Amino acid sequence: MSSASPPQGDLSPEYLFLGLLEQGASYGYELHERVRVDLRHSWRVSLSQTYGILKRLEMRGEIQGKVEPQEKRPDRRRFQLTPTGRRRFEAWLTSPVGPSVRALRMAFTTKLYFARRRGDSFIQTLLD
Description:
Blueprint: H1 14-22, E1 26-27, H2 28-38, H3 47-59, E2 63-70, E3 73-81, H4 83-93, H5 101-115, H6 120-127
Antiparallel strand pairs: 1-3, 2-3
């Protein structure tokens, strides 16, 4: 199966980070904090899990990290979505969610979170 066509009802937290990076480049800690604050009711992802997921996404070419030096602080990496990552996220976002309560609670609410930035017509498509 290609990375552009996710399995139905996929509950991988990778899509959280692909979706957040679809909104703009960011640092690992910032991404973790957005999940912790914005999606806390659906997802629990530790900081170490966040960095492991980002490393895996980068190894697959779905995101790209760039080291940015800081004065008097350790360097940090700013991540951005690649075209491959964008295709994978879009395929997931527009795929149906499985009928389980867990899939509805996690995947569907997460899709709604990302869909709200695209407007009412996209949300309606998702609901249909």
